[in-house]
Amino acid sequence: MEINENPKVRKTGTTTVGIACKDGVVVAAEKKATLGYLVASKEAEKILPIADHIVLTIAGASGDAQALARYMKAELKLFEVQNKRRISVKGAATLLSNILQSGRWSFIPYMVELILAGFDEKPAIFSLDAIGGMQEEKKFFSTGSGSPIALGVLEDQYKENISVEEGKELAIRAIKAAVERDIASGGRAIDLAIITKDGIKITTHELK
User: Fold this and answer.
1) List 12, 14, 16, 57, catalytic entry
2) Which CATH number goes with the domain that contains 166?
3) Which end of the chain, N or C, is less packed with Cβ atoms under 10 Å?
4) Is 57 among the residues known to form the active site?
5) Tens digits of per-residue pLDDT, 50-76?
6) How many angstroms separate the Cα of 187 from the Cα of each of 89, 140, 183, 190, 207?
7) What predicted TM-score, i.e. pTM, was given to this entire model?
8) Domain count of the fold of the chain
């Protein structure tokens, strides 16, 4: 039996967006998962809650992203138990950045592009790359193969002090635009997470 010493990492195409609003954060993702030319799933979950006030969107190698989400969920719960308070969104992003940075020195780093978004004293969105680069996004961000298309919509239509309801409609428009032009984005629906001082609400909207 031949052993492949350089296995290819299985990556999925996707589009996710995060929008900072005056009263919360809106995060959206389509549900199609691809493996090359194969549609692996039309019902993939790409918005993963990791605390009562924080979600993680996943793009890249799905196994890596899901493992990171489980790791973060456990670490954030441990922080809450030890400190008797929940971690800040920035603190969670810094922790995730450190985890990703430590993976840089292993044989294969985490092959992911992530959005970590949440609400503590104010809405917050952070983008993170595969080797731990972290950037706070003041307005919006998008990841995945359809992100150039989604970012075009966001750049054109985002406005200051946007409400959560307006952000929801903008996120859906951005994802729909990517689905129409990016072959790796699609599925039957869009998942939408709204994060406010009251917590996280995730809904699903059928693609028309």
Assistant:
1) 14
2) 3.60.20.10
3) N
4) no
5) 999 999 998 888 888 899 999 999 999
6) 30, 23, 11, 8, 8
7) 0.88
8) 1
